[in-house]
Design goal:
The structure is a homoheptamer of 88-residue chains. Chain A is mainly β and 88 residues long. Chain A has one domain (9-16, 34-87): 10 Kd Chaperonin, Protein Cpn10, Chain O (Roll). Chain A has no helices and 7 strands. In chain A, a hairpin with a 2-residue loop joins strand 5 and strand 6 (73-79). Chain A binds chain B through residues 1-7, 9, 11, 45, 66, 68-72, 77, and chain B through 23-28, 36, 51-52, 59, 61-62, 81, 83-88.
Chain lengths: 88, 88, 88, 88, 88, 88, 88
């Protein structure tokens, strides 16, 4: 059983602040700020629009997407156009 | 007698919170929050735009569509673009 | 003498709440709510855009269109894009 | 001397409430409501867009257009897209 | 020395209320209302878009354009799409 | 060293009110009003869109562009579509 | 490890006010104003849209983009359309 995004949407598992330092990039933030990075869990059906792949760590627009909890873990479904960058 | 959506619209039977756990996906929510999943009952006439089929369990945008009761049961007519994902 | 809609517009005779049950579809509503179904009386000149025909019972978007009384009966002129579904 | 509408615009002579009954269509209204029908006096230069002809009685969107008095008589210049229907 | 409008813009010399009667069209107005007619002084460089010529008396949308005084006389630079009609 | 506008943008040196009379065009204004004319200093890279050249005196939309001081002098970077006219 | 912008986005390292004078361009500003120049660190994957290169000093729209700190240094991810000019 899985959540399969439609079209140009991407399912992202939101990263907690403490594990965001892999690779040396640290985004210091106050406790009130929501982290804006996550791991791509599934991509939509529109192959032309999708520019990321499952497993990519991505940054996304702070106000983008729709939140959903899957087995208790916070996820986000965002449009490809709301993904700003890949962390490589 | 049936409700036949027009164009890129889809008729969805809104799922109640308690039966949303089939397949292991649980979306915990407060009583005030409306569930955002449902079952596709009928699809519109625009075959190119329609990416779901009757019987699919889908997630949709919280503020999307027009509510309608059919034989006492809450349904929603949404545009295809407001359907976020299929639950498989 | 008749009202001939232009382009992608459709002339609808608004159904009263009490006669909306033909075919088993009942949309319970409070007295304050306007019904959202009607019968197509005339269609516009844009044959490509028009997806309904005279006599169809249709559901339409609650805030759509322009109201007009014809011989004392409430009608609505709506764009095709505001018609959600046909009741068959 | 004449007012020649440009492009997809149409010049309409606004009908007074009392002479709107020709053909049996009566739009009862309170004194405060502006009538929404008129007679086409001149059409614009964009032949593809113009779907009415001089002399047609038309209904138009209540908030459409720009009012202008010509020799003391109230007229309206509206875009073709604001004309809802022809009364035949 | 001249003001040469760019693209689909037109330079109009705003007519005072008292000289607007040439040709029999009178637009009675209160003193507070700005007249909406003028004479075309120069047209832009986009020949396809420009539908008026220098010397035409035109009506334009009340809230259109940018006002500019040239040698003390009030002018307006408007887009072609804000010109409603030519007075012939 | 220079500021090179990108795409359809133009760099303008804002003219002070007192030197705007070259050529006989005077735009009287209260002290509070910002002048809306200037000299083109550099043009963007999109040759198709750019309709002015370096040295042109231009009028531009009052609320257009981004202000920047270069060596203490007020400049403006505007899009070509915000330039209304050339003063020749 | 790096931040790779997607599509028509550009990663910019925001310049502090004091080092903005290289090349003679000084943008005097009050302490409250954020500088609007920076150095391009990485460009997106859409080669047609990208008009700047890594190392360029650029000016960008004051309200553009999403701020992100990388190893404690303030960066900005902006769309190409929000970059106004290159400082050469």
């Amino acid at each position: 059983m899985a959540v399969k995004p439609i079209g140009d949407r991407v399912l992202i598992k939101i990263k907690e602040s403490e594990d965001k330092t892999a690779g040396g990039i640290i985004i210091p933030q106050t406790a009130q700020e929501k982290t804006q990075t996550g791991i791509v869990i599934a991509v939509g059906t529109d192959a032309d629009a999708i520019k990321v792949k499952v497993g990519d760590e991505v940054m996304y627009d702070k106000y983008a997407g729709t939140q959903v909890k899957i087995e208790g873990v916070e996820h986000l479904i965002v449009k490809m156009s709301d993904i700003l960058a890949v962390l490589e």
